[in-house]
């Protein structure tokens, strides 16, 4: 966007140069033609003055007579075919141009030449003045065009910043700084009642953000409502499944009820994360111990490597949730061995399967979307919850694929050295 101003300035400069060139050529040509016309008139008058003594004194006079060899070849070729006065501009020597006039009379050739040097020097001076005036005009017009382009350029940059904020998840971002009740203003702009094209783009972005926010809030409310509504009958199912007599069919029912219960709890957790009501309960904890305890609670095998004795200011319950979700995801969608590496305030969980699908690498995890059939089946909620909980504790969670194969999830907690000493311990 920052180059748009200079593109406009360059376009104005090119247009100004083109206008100056056209005007300069027209002025130059017009002045040159006028100088030639004046030179021809002066040469004809001089020729008549030179021939007048000859006509008065008779053929014996040599007044005005020149040698044919001195006449320019072009003019000499014209004389045998006409008895009228012929003129010729002789610029064979650019430093000393001449205007010739010649006429044949009584078998003799009369010719004169007029010095055109002063006229051509005046023309060159005019050309220089035109060039200097054009450069002076460019020195004023180009900066003025750049300044004039700065206002729309600034407005376009604001629209681009707003669009980037919306793409990053800030659905409250607006180009005009208005609130949700400002739809009427944007609608008026789009209806053509006010504003220009940039205003129309801004209004469109604002209306798009409003629509996107409303749709997303509606989806979140629906998810939360569904999860809450399912919770009551789910408790009845859990209780009823516990009363069934032991059998293979009973175990299958209980397993499906457990899966449904986990799904409902995940949906409720996501709805809380979406609502932004979750708050971290920070404590200073040893990362190696927390990771080992989290992995042990899942009951899944993992090769854990701890470098040093790093501690972090974080919420141990939420950190446990993130680690367990990443470990379960690695076993469910990847292949063994699963490795967990703790180094400093970074925790890396890696499997040796087919890696994360391109959709996860490009856009992050999406709920109810596993992304690739080869990574198994699931609801796509585990990574979504892990990413949301990482945001609550102020950590970053990145997803990548190892060069030799396998998915790599890297959790980076805030560096304890950059945080104030709270005096807490965990």
Automatic annotation (TrEMBL):
It is an enzyme of class 2 (transferase). It comes from the Bacteria. Gene3D superfamilies: 1.10.287.130, 6.10.340.10, Histidine kinase-like ATPase, C-terminal domain. Signal peptide: none annotated. Its EC number is 2.7.13.3. Residues 225-417 form the Histidine kinase domain. It is found in: Cell membrane. GO terms for molecular function: ATP binding. Residues 154-217 form the HAMP domain. The keyword Hydrolase does not apply. The keyword Methyltransferase does not apply. It catalyses: ATP + protein L-histidine = ADP + protein N-phospho-L-histidine. The chain crosses the membrane at residues 6-27, 130-149. SMART domains: HAMP, HATPase_c, HisKA. Keywords: ATP-binding, Kinase, Membrane, Nucleotide-binding, Phosphoprotein, Transferase, Transmembrane, Transmembrane helix, Two-component regulatory system. This is histidine kinase. It comes from Sphaerisporangium dianthi.
């Amino acid at each position: 966007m920052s180059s748009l101003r200079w593109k406009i300035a360059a376009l104005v400069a090119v247009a100004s140069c083109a206008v100056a060139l056209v005007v300069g050529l027209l002025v130059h040509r017009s002045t040159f033609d006028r100088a030639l016309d004046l030179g021809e008139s002066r040469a004809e008058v001089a020729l008549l003055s030179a021939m007048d003594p000859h006509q008065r004194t008779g053929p014996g006079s040599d007044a005005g007579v020149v040698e044919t060899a001195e006449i320019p070849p072009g003019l000499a070729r014209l004389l045998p075919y006409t008895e009228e006065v012929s003129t010729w501009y002789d610029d064979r020597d650019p430093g000393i141009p001449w205007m010739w006039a010649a006429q044949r009379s009584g078998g003799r050739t009369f010719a004169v030449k007029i010095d055109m040097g002063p006229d051509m020097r005046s023309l060159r001076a005019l050309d220089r003045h035109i060039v200097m005036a054009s450069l002076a005009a460019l020195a004023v017009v180009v900066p003025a065009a750049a300044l004039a382009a700065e206002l729309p350029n600034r407005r376009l940059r604001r629209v681009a910043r707003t669009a980037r904020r919306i793409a990053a998840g800030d659905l409250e971002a607006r180009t005009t700084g208005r609130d949700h009740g400002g739809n009427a203003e944007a609608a008026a702009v789009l209806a053509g009642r006010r504003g220009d094209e940039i205003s129309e783009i801004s209004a469109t972005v604002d209306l798009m953000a409003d629509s996107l926010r409303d749709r997303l809030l509606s989806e979140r409310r629906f998810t939360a409502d569904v999860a809450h509504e399912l919770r009551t009958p789910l408790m009845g199912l859990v209780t009823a499944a516990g009363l069934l007599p032991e059998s293979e069919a009973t175990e299958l029912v209980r397993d499906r009820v457990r899966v449904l219960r986990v799904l409902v709890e995940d949906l409720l957790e996501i709805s809380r994360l979406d609502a932004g009501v979750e708050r971290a309960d920070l404590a200073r904890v040893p990362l190696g111990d927390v990771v080992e305890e989290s992995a042990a609670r899942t009951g899944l095998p993992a090769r854990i490597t701890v470098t040093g004795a790093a501690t972090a200011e974080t919420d141990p319950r939420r950190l446990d949730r993130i680690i367990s979700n990443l470990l379960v995801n690695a076993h469910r969608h990847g292949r063994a061995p699963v490795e967990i590496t703790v180094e400093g305030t970074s925790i890396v969980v890696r499997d040796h399967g087919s890696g994360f699908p391109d959709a996860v690498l490009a856009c992050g995890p999406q709920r109810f979307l596993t992304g690739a059939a080869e990574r198994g089946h699931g609801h796509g909620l585990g990574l979504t919850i892990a990413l949301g909980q990482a945001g609550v504790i102020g950590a970053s969670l990145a997803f990548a694929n190892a060069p030799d194969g396998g998915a790599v999830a890297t959790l980076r907690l805030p560096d304890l050295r950059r945080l104030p000493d709270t005096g807490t311990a965990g």
